[in-house]
Design goal:
71% of the residues lie in helices and 0% in strands. By secondary structure, the protein is mainly alpha-helical.
Length: 112
Amino acid sequence: MAHAYRHYAQAHPGRYAATVRAPDPADRELTARAQALLDTVYSVLAGYGLAGADAVDATRALRAALHGFVTLQAAGGFGMPQDVDRSFTRMIEALDAALRQWKQAGRKDPTR
């Protein structure tokens, strides 16, 4: 999913930019499309056993990481000579490790 996200942002920068803001609830068509995308992310996170508030938190973290990477890359923000694809893969590996521990880490939160 992360690679598809990055590919879409690179292939369609204008459309990608339009996905950053949450849709106006009055725009039913756009809201339905955004929900379909969100449902895809929730399906991926269900594979980690995440649902409800945990899935919302994880979605926000995942989106922030992916958006940050693709935005920095598009702006030419990665000027060091190391391979950007390798860095992206390492970030995905780190996110995967975090998502595998998400529920357990959340149990340490006394507000839950």
